[in-house]
Amino acid sequence: MNFNLIDEPFIPCLMADGTQRDWGLRDVLTRAPEIREVRDESPLVTIALHRLLLAILHRNFGPTSLKEWKRLWTAGQFDTSTLNGYFERWHDRFDLFNPQHPFYQTGNMVTKDPLPAAALFDHYACNNNATLFDHTVNDPPLPLDFAATARGLIYRQAFALGLGVSPDVVINGRPTKTGNRQDSTLARGLILLVRGENLFQTLMCNLTATETADDDLPVWERDDPEVAIGLGHVTGRLDLYTAQSRRLLLILPQDGDGRLIRQIHFAQGRKVADETDPMKPYRRHEKLGWLVMGLDAERAVWRDSAALLALAHDSDRPVAALNWMARAIADGILPPGRQWALDVFGAATQPGKATSLLLFRHERMPLPLTYLAHGELVETLAIALQRAQDAAESLEKAAWRTARETLKPTTEDGSLGKKDRDAITAKADAIAPSRLYWSRLEVPFHRFLVDLAETGADTQHALAQWVLGTVVPSARAAYDHSIDLMDSSSRFVRAVAMGRQTLEMGLNHLSKTFKEHQHGQT
Predict the structure, then answer these.
(1) Domain for residue 314, yes or no?
(2) Residues 457, 426 within the same domain
(3) Is 244 within a domain?
(4) What is the pTM of this model?
(5) 3-state DSSP call for residue 12?
(6) Hey, what's the torsion of the CAs at 505, 510, 513, 514, to 10 degrees?
(7) In sequence order, what are the residues at sequence separation of 6 or more whose Cβ sits closer than 8 angstroms to the Cβ of residue 55?
(8) DSSP 284-308
(9) DSSP letter at 101?
(10) 457 and 367 within one domain
(11) Cis preceding linkage at 63, omega within 30
(12) DSSP 377-425
């Protein structure tokens, strides 16, 4: 029995003509200019597949310098003979059922209690996994076909949360304790992917220069992966991108199962020390140093777009792909007028439960390359987002006042007890105009982001148009819509009028500077 990822179709691709098709590793890389994008139903599977593709490309093409990168970019496709030679050399290591070196697994391993194959994914309910996208359960176990199993192995090695005690295993007849389950390399933080017009461009944009040490190897080239599990640090980017966070081994299909996997051996694998990941954004904390930027379930990522784009110009810890594109523009390899996209992937955990997944998210925002060439545009974008935040705060104050006047008109001394304050907060949260406001502002913000890149030097006019033409009307509309959903008692009507007064005070203060700018131009 075999299923070789080099040849068997398992990577879901959206082709240039809009059709969907699955390809194996060889076809995905050699046909990259014909493929619009790799896209799985799960966003985190999507980014895990990209990491695997990038590891193969780094192993074969580097690059180690901008000059080498330019040569690869100019070619317009990855060299087929180089890839074919590599795949021929390591062909057996990409087989899911290689008896000694099964791909992304630990050969000759046994656990006492195998898990259902669904444990390879977090969007299936299995054991301690919450149901995110469906309602499959352990009994009966959900079988996976070989293609889905391959995607699951790649996903699980990249994304796994530390969760409880891992079972002991027996490897090649030797009992081994595996300790507690630990986070994998992509378990925490946002992951950024610069997306070009086709898969070749996307992979090239994220194939940033790296120096490869002699001991920096992808896991399938290691004769004994257990040696790597003992390493507390990564030896380089190839090691980082293919680190095996779990010891896994598929249990071969039984008679009558055909090409379906029902169970797997599953245990803790390699714990990699906190490393700087070139695909993650970091921010500096005054006391804690560098912290990876994470996903907030209550906050869309586009609201932090200025902070993300600013990392292209960060001299200390830039996001590699953004910084690399900025260098390619400065060197004349890429035109600054081109517009691509920035994909942001991440997972959020339950509040107070760092080991319980709440949601996956994939957001895509436009990326005019002008922002990577001109840092001052990013600063203007940050101002635009701050003005939007100012309006949101005015909305929250208006909701609070509306709730207060509805539940407890102001007393002589203006005092409120804890019980009153909690009730007002709950009422304000029910009104929640800022949630509607932010959700409706995303599409206009994307338009503004693109328009700002095309305005040239007249950024103040663009800001005025953004605040007066979009932010302020959106805030008013969000408040009106939110209170329309509430009761119509006379007390509430009076409370709404007072809440609107609070909102208008905030919006008028916000608008003043920009109205003066507009009047100055007339």
Answers:
(1) yes
(2) yes
(3) no
(4) 0.92
(5) strand
(6) -120
(7) 218, 237, 238, 241, 242
(8) EETTTEEEE---BTTB-GGGGHHHH
(9) S
(10) no
(11) yes
(12) HHHHHHHHHHHHHHHHHHHHHHHHHHHHHHHS---TT----HHHHHHHH
Domain end among 373, 400, 424:
373
Q: How far, in Å, CA of 418 to CA of 509, rounded?
A: 31
Question: For residue 115, with 0-12 CB atoms within 10 Å meaning exposed, 13-18 middle and 19 or more buried, which class applies?
Answer: buried
Instruction: Please indicate, yes or no, whether residues 328 and 413 belong to a single structural domain of this protein.
Output: no
- Residue 400 sits in the same domain as residue 471: yes
**Three-state DSSP class for residue 269:** coil
Please check whether residues 502 and 381 belong to one and the same domain.
yes
The number of domains in the chain is 2
Does one domain contain both 306 and 350?
Answer: yes
The CA distances from residue 164 to 131, 268, 297, in Å, are 18, 10, 24
Contact 325, 303 (CB under 8 A): no
pLDDT for res 413: 58
Q: Are 175 and 168 in contact (CB under 8 A)?
A: yes
* Domain carrying residue 356: 282-373
> What average pLDDT does the chain have?
90
Confidence band, pLDDT 50/70/90 cuts, at residue 518: low
Q: pLDDT value at position 358?
A: 73
Whether 414 and 514 map to the same domain: the answer is yes
The residues facing 363 across adjacent strands are 344
pLDDT in tens, 75-108: 999 999 999 999 999 999 999 999 999 999 999 9
Report whether pLDDT(133) > 50: no
185 vs 242: CA distance, rounded Å: 9
Q: Closest Cα to residue 118, out of 155, 81, 89? A: 155
CA distances from 404 to 65, 159, 398, 409 (A): 61, 45, 10, 7
Mean predicted confidence (pLDDT) in 407-414: 64
- Distance, in Å, from the CA atom of 62 to the CA atom of 218, rounded to the nearest integer, reads 13
Last residue of a domain, one of 346, 373, 400: 373
Distance CA 13, CA 19 (A): 8
Residue with tokens 């890389």: 29
303 shares a domain with 406:
no
Report which of 420, 403, 395 is spatially closest to residue 491, judged by C-alpha positions: 403
Percent of residues, the chain, with pLDDT higher than 70: 91
- CATH number of the domain residue 460 falls in: 1.10.132.100
